[in-house]
Design brief:
This protein is an alpha+beta fold and 217 residues long. The protein contains nine helices and eight strands. α3 packs across α4 and α5 crosses α8.
Length: 217
Amino acid sequence: MTSVDDYANWRGVTPQRVRQLLRSGELPGRRIGSRQWIVDDAAFNSRVRVARPMAPPMAWGLIAMLGGDEPAADLTPVQRSRLREHRNKLVRLEGGAPALLASWVRLRGERLVYQVAPADMADLSHDARLMKSGVSDPRAGISATGVTEVWLRHFTDLDEIVGDYLLLPDPKGQVVMHRGREHESEQPQIGLVMADLADWNSPREDARVIELLARVR
């Protein structure tokens, strides 16, 4: 069992937020006495939305900053300052960073999972209408055999891709498809790779997020 303060420090959120999650049942734990809470050890292996999500412009601004780029010009100086604070917090947090990153940027787009015929996997993974990210990006350093993770590129129609490859919705499928922003580049920002890896809620992917964050300057 872990104290509320220790769990909050590890996740990079306030003790008040942890108590709110405990009261709602989203975080496993129990009450001791009339006011004190403790967090179950199982909470360290579960992916709880520990922080409220940022609005999409802020989420994409944080993703840009994680890659050393400037966020969109329409963000205010106050918003930019806040994003720098968020970036620095992620770099300092280490173990708790993947969960916090996933919570902050979850409104960046939609994550869809499909089943595809094995014979079509190679063609889909090299389709110019799609951009590899997450476990499929070489910078992730992960050998994700049998899985392809992509974002729809500029003006690509999801229904067209689904029809061309006869994709079937399946939460255990081999194709993870993201949409929510038009990407003209063939390669995603490294911050987007980190965000997509964090969504997996897996020790292997979390470890890579932490390693990539250690390179952020």
